[in-house]
């Protein structure tokens, strides 16, 4: 991420809120796997991983130990019913 694109953390958070739908909004960004809070755009390091949250607490999840090894690329009604319904209508 270029510091030129987002001069402040606040502008980045506004942009993320437009891109990521959450019930409480994107308010915090943390480094992975450490969980350190990003407080300034200058703290971002290329190639690192980050997670967003609406609360100031990160829950460590063992992503590498997940039992499901893939993300389904087909439409399952129990996973995303609204998207499945709308995409099926568009394809008919």
* Strand percent estimate: 5-15%
Report the radius of gyration as a whole number of Å.
17 Å
**CATH homologous superfamily heading of the domain at 1-60:** Doublecortin domain
Give the class-level CATH name of the domain at 1-60: Alpha Beta
Strand order of the largest sheet: 1-2
Poorly predicted runs of 5 or more residues: 76-92
> Which class of secondary structure composition applies to the elements?
alpha+beta
Report the CATH topology name of the domain at 1-60: Ubiquitin-like (UB roll)
The average pLDDT value, as a whole number, equals 75
Give the terminus-to-terminus CA distance. 40 Å
Q: What key phrases describe this protein's structure?
A:
single chain, 92 residues, disordered C terminus, two-stranded antiparallel sheet, 2 helices, alpha+beta, 24% helix, Ubiquitin-like (UB roll)
In terms of topology, how is this protein built?
Elements: H1 9-19, E1 28-32, E2 49-53, H2 81-91
Antiparallel strand pairs: 1-2
């Amino acid at each position: 991420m270029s510091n030129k694109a987002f001069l402040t953390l606040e502008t980045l958070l506004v942009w993320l809120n437009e891109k990521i739908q959450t019930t409480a909004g994107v308010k915090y960004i943390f480094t992975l796997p450490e969980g350190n809070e990003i407080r300034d755009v200058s703290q971002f390091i290329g190639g690192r991983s980050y997670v967003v949250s609406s609360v100031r607490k990160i829950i460590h999840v063992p992503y590498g130990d997940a039992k499901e090894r893939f993300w389904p690329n087909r439409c399952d009604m129990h996973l995303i019913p609204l998207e499945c319904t709308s995409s099926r209508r568009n394809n008919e």
